[in-house]
Amino acid sequence: MPSADRPPLLDDPALPGGSLVLDRAELQAWLTESLGRSCSVTPRRLRYKAGTSAVLGFDLGTLCDGVVTTQSCVASSYSEHAAPKAEKTSRSGPPGSCLAYDTVRHTVVTTAAGDRALPLLPTLGQPDGVARVVRRLIAGPDMEAARIRTVRHNPGRRWVGILEGERATALLLRAYGDSRRMARAAACYRALAHGGARTPGVVAHSRGLATLAVTWAAGDELDLSASTELWEAAGGELARLHTGPSRPLSETDPASAAEAVLRAGRQIAALLPEISPDVLDITRTTAAALERAPGDCVAVHGDFSADQVVVGPDEMPVLIDLDSARRGPSAYDVGCLTASTMTSAEMEGAASRGEQVMAAFLTGYDHVRPLPDEAAVAVHTAAFRLRKAIDPFRACAPDWREQVTARVAATRVALEDIPLARTRP
After folding, report:
1. pLDDT over threshold 50, residue 126
2. Which among 57, 55, 58, 54 has a CA at the least distance from the CA of 41?
């Protein structure tokens, strides 16, 4: 149970029930009262739209007869003008999916089955939901007594889970908001399957459920504790992905990376007005540098970080989560990895370790294909530092203000060493 005097993540007067979502202790107390049993809340992902809504994906632990059960849930709070969404959410899910509803404060809590934006989840919430999903995806005796467990749930956006049968190899299920998004993701997986990199393959899909089943990559995610040899191997694997065919993938609009930075900067400035001038200045500088950065056009992962690399018992890395694959500059992936790795290392007080593993990664990459332009990598690294600066807020870190401010400052320092960023257009 969190400290009772810990303040909510933020205060939005336009959300009458905002504290129920933005204050972990208050949400726990409300659910404990509503459900009549002891509850614990573990926040996972927050989506916030100022003056309109706050939507929290979280794990709910409940204690009943000495047994603790955990399930993925969603808490949503709306402003007065968006109040009908709360009412609709409270009544449109499968029976039992609505756990609590405050009609005055326009706030509702549901199980994952109440996430109407992802067609798979209400189906799973039905009494025979797992069996229905299995029949539509992977029918057969190996999937008898199948079970599905949640890995990740970004409410209204995406859900990832593991499908396990009695005798079958586990599969990864990826659920989307509509069949168009699912089809695009499937195309990414299939396109990269024809390259030299080790990636999961598509096993099945359902348009009606907007769900994709791909092979499960067993092993451990790459992290700072992994050996430099594994980081070097991962570098070679990304280089092989960059060397593979890219024609089936859609091409990134060169202006989209700059626009993503501008959106991130505006959001941080709105959340932390005290550093708004500095944030907006850094944002403009970074966006302008991105537009001038040199770049090739290859097949890119699109959201590459160490946790997108799984190393199995054979110590061969597999690149996972390919939904964002596209054609773009190789510096995009390398910059994304550098930003996330160095940010994690700095948070752990292990910056030198971050530099060490990145050097090993680049060595492995260079063994397969020439490294991307150094200045372009530096610019993309700064851009991703800024884009990921908001992550502590989305993860509901109690000290998110300090963390975000520190990440913005680190972005400014990184920009000072980049000639492309020092020269204004």
Report:
1. yes
2. 58
Q: In whole angstroms, what is the distance from residue 133 CA to residue 113 CA?
A: 13
Give the separation between CA 299 and CA 241, rounded to whole angstroms: 7
Give CA 120 to chain center in angstroms: 18
Residues 6+ apart with CB under 8 A from 205: 137, 182, 183, 186, 211, 212, 213
User: What is the distance of C-alpha 125 from the center of its chain?
Assistant: 23
Place of tokens 């039905």: 126
CA distances from 42 to 55, 179, 367 (A): 14, 31, 43
- Report the alpha-carbon distance of residue 182 to residue 138 in Å, rounded: 17
Handedness of CA 350, 3, 86, 131 (dihedral sign): positive
Specify whether the CB–CB gap between 94 and 113 falls below 8 A. yes
Distance in angstroms (rounded) separating the CA atoms of residues 258 and 127: 46
Q: Which residue has the tokens 């060397």?
A: 243
**Which tokens belong to 324?**
């964002």
CB–CB of 78/53 below 8 Å?
yes
Q: pLDDT for 187-219, tens place per residue?
A: 999 999 988 999 999 999 999 999 999 999 999
Give the global pTM.
Answer: 0.92
Cα distances from 193 to residues 122, 151, 246, 311, 354, in angstroms, run: 31, 23, 11, 18, 30
Contact 22, 8 (CB under 8 A): yes
* Mean predicted lDDT score pLDDT of the chain: 92
Cα–Cα distance between 24 and 6 in angstroms, integer?
Answer: 9
Structure tokens, 21? 């979502």
Helices (H) and strands (E) in the chain, counts: 15, 15
* Assigned token pair, 263: 């959106």
